[in-house]
Write a structure and sequence with these properties.
Helix content: 25-40%
Number of helices: 12
Low-confidence stretches: none
Largest sheet: 13 strands, mixed
CATH superfamily of one domain: ANL, C-terminal domain
Strand content: 15-25%
Shape: globular
């Protein structure tokens, strides 16, 4: 824990807002500058580029990135030097000649992916734990930060009729208030960013009226949060008969949105829900337009979908392997994101008028799949619970190839028949396996407050047995 964070946590609530605002001014100077409006306008113009315009753009940007990485980034430079020593004359100018970069390699030595003409002391540092709890360190230049936040302003806020100048709220995993606190506030107001930062750790039936009241008092126009957090608010509104705040839009991040969640959320808030997809590594990003389609931001990176070492066709699911183009000082080339996705086939224009490519679905993390003894990898198992009206949330824990535990947070009326229905539906999809259903008060979150829908405890030896 940093000294500044330790000092912040010892402050009274009245002083924490001042501290958060001071930090907000620092972040604002990094994120926005005199070039921001121009960058936003350019991003909006590119949204209707033709395929040939994007091809010309990539033909300029990608070779520069690959050459910089091969000559100025230690890890890649040594990789290509070793290939040359072995007599490999493959050109680094072609993306397909580069190795796939795995997360564990980046986590082990992140400094080796920073260009040697950069000074990390003068850069913005981001540390993210992701869903695994393992830390990843990333460095961004001021130019990278401003380019990214201009894209975010154009494609995330502006699409939904809001801007950074509006009051907004986020429900996130930062410990802005002690977990032990029993009474509000469970949030902190950052006036420099017009942001109400709300704790994801205090969401409970008892506390939700206070959350909704804070959104109303701070005149919040839009809420940015994990889909599970917004769903928790929406369920409380419905079950407790609470009055929702007037919001223009609700924006999800970091977790997939399931159909039953969308239905409950939009009905409870009487506002549209928009899904976003991205990651701190900034190698691909997508946002949902008003037509409900998930558009990829081409400037962020080159997207490949790989299954068993081979590229898949549009319309087929594969592992996301992406080459980031925004951060050219810490380039991540053919980086396996850890999620699986399906790209929508070209040729069906979106009614929103934007010509950017699309994901037809994000299937979730590749390690959020159930692995069966006969070698199948099964995702999208939320369908097992969606029509069980007495379950609020669920998590599947795979203990072995033949043994599963399902944690559920029950709603009133949960009984043995609901338990039996869940088990039957699970076996319909996975096969004849041992399944137990365990009601819990709260399903554990990751270190940054996310809900994982599948937790795999398979050993490498067990994985090797699958399909053998």
């Amino acid at each position: 824990m940093s000294l500044a964070l330790e000092v912040y946590r010892r402050l009274p609530a009245s002083m924490q807002g001042i501290a958060a605002t001071l930090r907000g001014y620092q972040l604002r100077r990094w994120r926005y500058g005199p070039e921001t409006d121009r960058l936003v306008a350019e991003a909006r113009e590119r949204e209707r580029w033709s395929e040939s315009e994007w091809s010309d753009w990539y033909a300029t940007q990608l070779p520069m990135l690959l050459d910089r990485a091969a000559t100025r980034v230690p890890w890649y430079r040594e990789h290509w030097a070793e290939r040359r020593r072995r007599g490999d004359r493959a050109s680094w100018s072609y993306l397909e000649n580069w190795p796939i970069l795995e997360k564990d390699v980046l986590r082990a030595t992140p400094e080796r992916f920073l260009a040697d003409d950069c000074d990390p002391r003068r850069m913005f540092v981001e540390r993210t734990s992701g869903t695994t709890g393992k830390s990843t360190t990333l460095w961004w230049s001021r130019a990278t930060v401003r380019e990214w936040y201009a894209l975010f302003e154009a494609r995330c806020r502006n699409w939904y009729g809001v801007s950074r100048h509006d009051h907004w709220a986020i429900i996130g995993g930062q410990l802005v208030t002690p977990v032990s606190r029993q009474r509000p506030p469970f949030w902190v107001w950052n006036s420099a960013l017009n942001q109400l930062y709300m704790s994801a750790w205090h969401l409970s039936a008892r506390n939700i009226p206070a959350y909704l009241g804070a959104l109303e008092r701070h005149r919040i126009r839009y809420l940015f949060a994990y889909s599970s957090a917004i769903y928790t608010l929406a369920e409380a509104i419905r079950e407790q008969g609470l009055r929702p705040p007037r919001l223009d839009v609700l924006v999800t991040n970091a977790e997939p949105v399931h159909a039953h969640q969308r239905e409950v959320i939009e009905a409870a808030f009487n506002a549209p829900l928009r899904e976003t997809y991205g990651m701190s590594e900034i190698v691909t990003t997508a946002t949902e337009c008003e037509a409900g389609r998930l558009h990829i931001w081409p400037e962020v990176g080159v997207v490949e979908l790989i299954e068993e070492g081979h590229a898949v066709m549009d319309g087929e699911v594969g592992d996301l392997v992406c080459t980031g183009l925004v951060n050219q000082d810490m380039p991540l080339i053919r980086y396996r994101v850890g999620d699986r996705a399906v790209r929508r086939p070209a040729g069906v224009p979106c009614s929103c008028g934007r010509t950017m490519p699309e994901f037809s679905s994000i299937e979730g993390r590749s390690d959020d799949l159930v692995l069966t003894r006969d070698g199948r990898r099964i995702g999208q198992l939320q369908a097992v619970f969606q029509t069980v009206g007495t379950v609020s949330e669920a998590q599947i824990i795979q203990e072995s190839l033949d043994e599963f535990r399902i944690l559920v947070t029950p709603r009133p009326g949960f009984d043995d028949s609901a338990r039996a229905l869940i088990i039957a539906r699970f076996r319909d999809r996975v096969g004849d396996v041992a399944v137990s259903v365990e009601p819990v008060e709260l399903i554990p979150r990751t270190a940054n407050g996310k809900l994982r829908y599948v937790v795999s405890r398979l050993t490498p030896e067990q994985r090797a047995l699958a399909g053998s």
